């Protein structure tokens, strides 16, 4: 395995041990670090908001290509280490913040985040909440999102009928997700129990809602209700939503769907037709 630097030895020398509660797994492969950079396709016009800067190996590489980097790191020891390294190397286009990305307010850095990409090697537990926070951001959505996530989660996000799910719909309603590269577990330290993948979400916007004249809250209410009962048909899972099963069957039929259709079989357009009934 090709190594960026001797991350384990460097961190141990500073008496640092990975925190399991924070889901810390450091990407130590030069090959896959480069794959993230390639997926981001950075230019001098881009600014970057990095999630989980960790030991900084990706952070400082990003800084070579972007105009500015705001690096968020929840672990105070790592944030302090990053600050030391940035000063030592005289890197001036990085702002390091010790904090929780889920509490981060983009509007406070509006000038820096006018044309930004969200990048990160993130803890697995953070994926859904992070995507929801930034895809639903009203005024400062990222231009693109490039993350390393659990491989199975990446596959769920990029799913198509008949394997759709709430996470896939919640992402695809805002942008175009694709798996750029799969990463084996031994590319990380400590080695996780599962493989990862680099996922890229591009063409991010709220246009789908405006184009189809639907409200976000109504759309999410519908799909959450539909998926709340596993392996149930739409007629059964949406009977209370539409009042009763008979009414649900009528609306499903008007939307051009079969009464035995199941939620995982519908694409975005199907959900819009159903919502507009």
From TrEMBL:
Native organism taxonomy: Bacteria, Candidatus Sungiibacteriota
GO molecular function: 16S rRNA (adenine(1518)-N(6)/adenine(1519)-N(6))-dimethyltransferase activity; RNA binding
E.C. no: 2.1.1.182
Record's catalysed reaction(s): adenosine(1518)/adenosine(1519) in 16S rRNA + 4 S-adenosyl-L-methionine = N(6)-dimethyladenosine(1518)/N(6)-dimethyladenosine(1519) in 16S rRNA + 4 S-adenosyl-L-homocysteine + 4 H(+)
Family: Belongs to the class I-like SAM-binding methyltransferase superfamily. rRNA adenine N(6)-methyltransferase family. RsmA subfamily.
Residue ranges the record marks as coiled coil: none
Top-tier EC class: transferase
Function: Specifically dimethylates two adjacent adenosines (A1518 and A1519) in the loop of a conserved hairpin near the 3'-end of 16S rRNA in the 30S particle. May play a critical role in biogenesis of 30S subunits.
Swiss-Prot/TrEMBL keywords: Cytoplasm, Methyltransferase, RNA-binding, rRNA processing, S-adenosyl-L-methionine, Transferase
GO CC annotations, alphabetized: cytosol
Species per Swiss-Prot/TrEMBL record: Candidatus Sungbacteria bacterium RIFCSPLOWO2_12_FULL_41_11
Pfam families: RrnaAD
Amino-acid positions noted as binding S-adenosyl-L-methionine in the UniProt annotation, renumbered to this chain: 25, 27, 52, 73, 100, 121
PROSITE patterns linked to this entry: RRNA_A_DIMETH, SAM_RNA_A_N6_MT
Protein's cellular compartments: Cytoplasm
Protein name (database record): Ribosomal RNA small subunit methyltransferase A
